[in-house]
Structure formats: C-alpha cells, structure tokens
Amino acid sequence: MATQTKTFKPEELFDFDGAVARWNEATRKASNDYLDLYEKTVDQIADLEVKTAGATKIPFVTTIAETHATVSREVAGAYVAAVRALIKA
Predict the structure, then answer these.
(1) pTM of the model
(2) To the nearest 5 percent, what fractions of the chain are helix, strand and coil?
C-alpha cells in the first residue's frame, strides 16, 4: 500500500496577507502615537524654557528663549509632518 504524503502550502496554514495587514496597521498606530508624544514633549520643554527665562526678568533672555522655543516647535512640527507623510505612503 502506497503512502500518500500531502504537502501544505504556507498560505493554507497561515493567513500571511491578514497578518501583514494587521502588522502594518499596528506599526502605523505605534508610529503615530510616538509622533504625538514627541510633539507634545517638545512643546512642553519649550514652554518650560520660556517660563524659566521669564523668571529671570531679563528681557533679552526671555526674547532669546521665546525665539528658541518657536524654532524648536517649528522644527519638530516639520519633522512630524514629514514622518507622517512617509507613514501614509
């Protein structure tokens, strides 16, 4: 009596397309959560910098801190926007 061996295709054992789709969605969500946290952290550090400079009551120090905070926020915003565009692609 001949023994028949059945070969399985990997697609039959595991739903690769579904797993890849779930993996992509999970990494996209984690990336967006990270970017939200990054943006919020930069904003909070910039606020702290401005408050600390304001406590010195030296006008040019406050102006420099406000300018630096603005630049920091804009750079972080550009970075986040660029990464979000890459994630969507």
Answers:
(1) 0.74
(2) 85, 0, 15
Give the model confidence (pLDDT) of 21-68 as tens digits: 899 999 999 999 999 999 999 999 999 999 999 999 999 999 999 999
Query: Closest Cα to residue 46, out of 64, 58, 25?
Result: 64
Q: Show the tokens assigned to 64.
A: 């420099």
What is the enclosing helix (H) or strand (E) of 38?
helix 16-56
Q: Rounded to an integer, what distance in angstroms lies between the CA atom of residue 66 and that of residue 55?
A: 13
Structure tokens at 56: 């010195």
Amino acid, res. 69: A
Phi/psi for 80 (5° steps) reads: -65, -40
DSSP class of 64 = H
